[in-house]
Design brief:
Layout: E1 3-6, H1 12-19, E2 22-23, H2 42-58, H3 66-80, E3 88-100, E4 105-117, E5 120-127, H4 138-146, E6 155-160, E7 164-171, E8 177-180, E9 184-185, H5 193-211
Helix pairs in contact: 2-3
Length: 212
């Protein structure tokens, strides 16, 4: 009998038991978020300052719901990163099934935002309401990332509640592993959207460079 589980109820213990998922503590496993990044232009910095100011103003009457987070914070970031233009494309509310045939388990859910280039999932994004701790969504995001049928190397993820951002990397070969970045937060004095955008732009550039 097949057992169906919702992705948003999965835990890291579940993924460890059914996938053998391990957290990598090797800094070299997830170097992509901490490499030397290209500087942002003055215009990009001004736009991100406006995004932070908009978010701060809206937080006077919390919580911001998921759709508001995507509209106010996430959409400008994806635009500035170049993900709305070819060769990338965007899908939203993409249904996924992570089937574990040997165990008779199917984990189902919906990805909030999926950035693709051809069949390659560049980025899986899970957005939450502003009063939701992003760390709680790590198992759900990993379910989505590991469900990629084309996953032969790595898939990257981003969890955000509008004020906090956490990057993830997952791979299934030679074993199922994941690691996370540090937590970027708009609560900090500087505008950490600068660093978030730099990571996104760097990943996009690396994908394009690999194709040439």
């Amino acid at each position: 009998m097949v057992q169906t589980t919702a992705a948003n109820t999965a835990t890291l213990r579940d993924l460890k038991q059914v996938l053998g998922l391990q957290q990598s503590l090797d800094p070299a496993f997830f170097e992509e978020w901490q490499q030397n990044m290209s500087p942002l232009s003055e215009a990009e910095q001004h736009l991100l300052d406006r995004v932070k100011a908009n978010f701060t103003a809206l937080m006077e009457d919390p919580p911001m719901l998921e759709n508001s987070v995507k509209m106010v914070v996430l959409s400008p970031l994806l635009d500035l990163a170049g993900f709305y233009r070819k060769p990338f494309r965007i899908e939203t509310e993409t249904s996924i099934d992570l089937e574990l045939e040997d165990d008779g388990i199917v984990i189902r859910g919906r990805i909030d935002v999926l950035v693709l280039k051809e069949q390659f999932w560049l980025l899986v994004i899970e957005s939450k309401r502003s009063d939701f701790a992003v760390t709680r969504a790590i198992p759900q995001a990993l379910v989505y990332m590991l469900s990629n049928p084309e996953l032969t190397e790595s898939t990257f993820g981003l969890i955000t509640n509008g004020s906090e951002f956490l990057f993830l990397k997952a791979t299934q070969q030679p074993v199922a592993q994941y690691a996370n970045s540090r937590l970027f937060s708009l609560i900090n004095p500087n505008n950490e959207l600068y660093a978030v955008l730099q990571v996104l732009k760097q990943w996009g550039a690396q994908v394009l460079a690999a194709e040439n």
